Every structure is written in structure tokens, then in C-alpha cells.
């Protein structure tokens, strides 16, 4: 018998002690599920080649767009279409799951000092 | 200003009044996010060309494999690898989110009377 185990999102989040550094917890085909804690402001960026899924697990997330914003609470999902400039913002800490193809950087096409190390598993 | 709105998973689940009929709530590239309520036993099946992601939102899910089983509670995720035979089971009602490429049928390669209509949005 094989010992199959689920991935417990809260347990994995308990291993994360920093902000803005996504950790990979699972892969489906060439897509990755990433958990991240964020607080404060990020930078404007976009992902030219892919949509990006945000699922809020705890807290209140705002994603700014050039022509508006979306507000997400726990249990809410939003998919940022490819090529659309966006800027996440969290007044208090937010716990998030991101889903996107393997290899996508947190700063997208923008790069710079806020770029996190990619493909780090927990 | 554009009126951006998140997808509230609990609100969407409140629109589902049957079992074993996945409803699409969002698309990321060519992947779909589907919500479904299940209770009881399903059929053995597999998906030859794709992994399949299960995220339990409420209840206790068991997924049987030919050589074991995995038990998932709310907040837990499991990815069934492509080609692996599996059979979901829920003693009491389970609320699930499935993530898989557009066009994947609930009965995979198996077909038959338990095959749900595909690509139904709520």
C-alpha cells in the first residue's frame, strides 16, 4: 500500500515566516501551487504570457489595476489576465495561494529588487 | 473605472443543489476551476492526459487508489497524477474545488451514466 498524504495548506503556511516569498507546495502538470504571506505594497508588474490565479486564505487583499481595483477576502478567488498590469496590496498580513505556470516570477516582466527566488518548495 | 469583482467560493457553492455535477467558476489560461458537491461513491476512472487537483472546501473526502487511499479535510489539497485510477468517496456531503484543463470529463476515460455535462458555468 502506498502512503498517500494530502497537502494541508494551514500547516504549510505555518512554515512561512517572511513576506513576499512564494513557496511551492504542489505541481499539476506544468503549473505550480504557491503559498505566500504578504503585507504592505508591491510593485506594478504584469505577466506577458500567462494568467495568474490569486486565492485568499486569510486576510484582506487589494489588487490595484490601472483602471480600478479588486478586493478579496478569505475564500475568494481572482484571476489576473495575462498582460494586465497589477499591484497587490495588503494593509495587514494576507495569506495567499497563487496558481501559475512553473517559472513565473513574482515580479513578472518588471524584475528588480522585489524579485523572489523562484521554485522554492516547502 | 472597471468594476472588478472576486469570485466568492461559498456564494457559488450556494447555487449548487445537486451532487456530482461540476460547475465552472473561472478560467486561467486553458485551465478551469470547478466547484462540485458530492456524496456517496463514484466510479473508478482516470485521466490519461492530465493531472487533476482536488481542494476540499468542506467535509471529509476519501480518494481511493488501487494501492491505497488519501483522506482530505477542508483546507487540504491533493493532485491525482495523470493516468492514475482513482475513485472519490464521501460518506457525508463534501464541497470541492477541482482544477484541470478545459474539456476534462468527470469520468475521465471511463465514460458511462455518471458522466456529467461539461463546461457548465455558474
UniProtKB/TrEMBL annotation, chains A, B:
The keyword 4Fe-4S does not apply. Residues 39-99 form the Cupin type-2 domain. GO terms for molecular function: isomerase activity. Coiled coil: none annotated. It holds the Pfam family Cupin_2. The keyword Isomerase applies. InterPro entries: Cupin_2 (IPR013096), PKS_Associated_Protein (IPR052044), RmlC-like_jellyroll (IPR014710), RmlC_Cupin_sf (IPR011051). Keywords: Isomerase. This is Mannose-6-phosphate isomerase, cupin superfamily.
